[in-house]
Write a structure and sequence with these properties.
Helices cover 21% and strands 28% of the residues. The protein contains 8 helices and 15 strands. The strands form 5 sheets. Strands 1, 2, 3, 4, 9, 10 and 13 form a 7-stranded antiparallel beta sheet that branches. It is globular, with a radius of gyration of 18 Å.
Length: 259
């Protein structure tokens, strides 16, 4: 079971595994193990499949406590570099409870929009400024799905869709609601893709750590400045993961590293 992280350590960016902190009384409950000998980044690791996963498990089983990288020795980044993400596709209004809160009719097909991964994706806890472009900054927590293999166009087999999933993460879908809903002719793009509008992580859980059946029964919460503002569950998803992948594949090929 592997939780993939990306850290800045001794002047270099490294792929790492998040593991329990050896000191239970430490301020942080996690430490890190360097995985850069196995793969340079999360996309390459997921694309390598079981070969990389088995090497990581073997490395972790032999890891000595004095070789752990402690949180005070490194800086935690987003687990996948936005520059290595090809497509960053999002599904709007996909929670039953959220639609009911907003008085929005339940969609009959996925409502797809996108963000620009290279500038939107930042690490968990990165401060997000309320800048001059918007007066209606808003928050939404989302389950993130990271592909580990190519999903060809027109894939209809559900098992093939699940097999293409490399791991799961958490994403904060930040929005400028004025630009999303009231300006720019109703196009959502500018309201969704301001720099930093997709904090992601802190880790990507591989599918043995977070099996597919948990994807539709996981608690999901959002805190803003420490205050709990969303508390839901992925059992509220209208369109499930495999259904979304099948829908998207009608229009495009998806690749490892796509989110």
């Amino acid at each position: 079971m592997v939780r993939l992280a990306r850290i800045e350590y001794q002047g270099a960016t490294k792929l790492a595994a998040q593991v329990p902190h050896p000191d239970n009384d430490a301020a942080s409950s996690f430490a890190y193990v360097d995985l850069s000998s196995i793969a340079p980044d999360a996309r390459s690791f997921l694309e390598a499949g079981d070969a990389a996963l088995n090497k990581a498990k073997d490395l972790l089983s032999k890891q000595q406590q004095d070789n752990l990288i402690l949180p005070e020795q490194c800086r935690l980044l987003a687990p996948i570099d936005g520059r290595s993400v090809g497509k960053f596709l999002c599904i709007g209004m996909n929670y039953i409870d959220h639609c009911e809160e907003q008085g929005f009719p339940i969609p009959t097909e996925p409502l797809v929009f996108s963000k620009f991964a290279d500038t939107c994706i930042v690490g968990t806890g990165t401060p997000l400024a309320r800048d001059v472009t918007t007066t209606k900054l808003d928050y939404e927590v989302e389950l993130g799905v990271v592909l580990g293999a190519t999903l060809p166009r027109f894939t209809t087999d559900e098992a093939a869709c699940w097999a293409a999933v490399g791991g799961y993460t958490v994403i904060h879908d930040v929005s400028a609601r004025d630009w999303q809903m009231e300006k720019n002719g109703g196009q959502w793009l500018l309201g969704k893709t301001v720099d930093g509008y997709a904090p992601l992580g802190p880790v990507i859980c591989t599918t043995d750590e977070f099996p597919h059946e948990r994807a539709h029964r996981a608690a999901i919460r959002c805190r803003v400045n420490g205050e709990l503002l969303q508390d839901s569950n992925t059992n509220q998803l209208i369109f499930k993961v495999a259904d979304i992948l099948k829908f998207l594949s009608q229009f495009m090929t998806l690749h490892a590293g796509d989110v």
